[in-house]
Amino acid sequence: MKQTVKPIAVISGDVVSSTKLTSDEFEQLLQRVKDIQAWITEGNASNLHSIERGDEFQTIVHDIRNALKYAILYRIGIKALGKVFESRISFAIASNADLRASVSESMGEAFVLSGRGLKALKSDRFIFHSEHPKLTERFDLLFKYLDRQLTELTSRQCAVLVPMLRNQEGLSVSELADKLDIATATASKSLKASGWPLISELNSLFINQVTGLKDV
């Protein structure tokens, strides 16, 4: 067991209506969750993950500046698989945790807040909590709008966003077009339609806010 007083983020999620997926669709889903977790580990090798029964997952995030980006990556990465794929994501930031080799056995306020948030989700699909009430309140309405935006995205629009969130240094529109093998004008139009400029701006705001937390 490793105790840490530094703030960590915990992302908890599950797949909506996973029992309705075919065997092939479930395999697609499982592989995508593993891929997303590998992408998050690329951001910070200390980040840890778990998958329960294939349709529930959790990630411990040490680079908390990127917590929102990773949470969105889970949401759109799964949604990009097709219209039958959707997930619910709850993430939280708090300090003082007992971290074990098994993510599911780790404990701390971030785990409690993230788990509670996931259980509380009904029609919504995305929620955030923090041990700092002002931080939670600051983003409450913004994330409600973000949730609505992400819910309305098509799988194709999500697929365009995935490379933008995966790349640590950021991609230009022309670089995105090259990756997707599409015209630059098409890539630019797709990004605007997906709401990327506002999503990127919101992520920057989140980074600025959490950077002020102790030991970030």
Automatic annotation (TrEMBL):
Organism domain of life: Bacteria
InterPro entries: WH-like_DNA-bd_sf
Descriptive protein name: SatD family protein
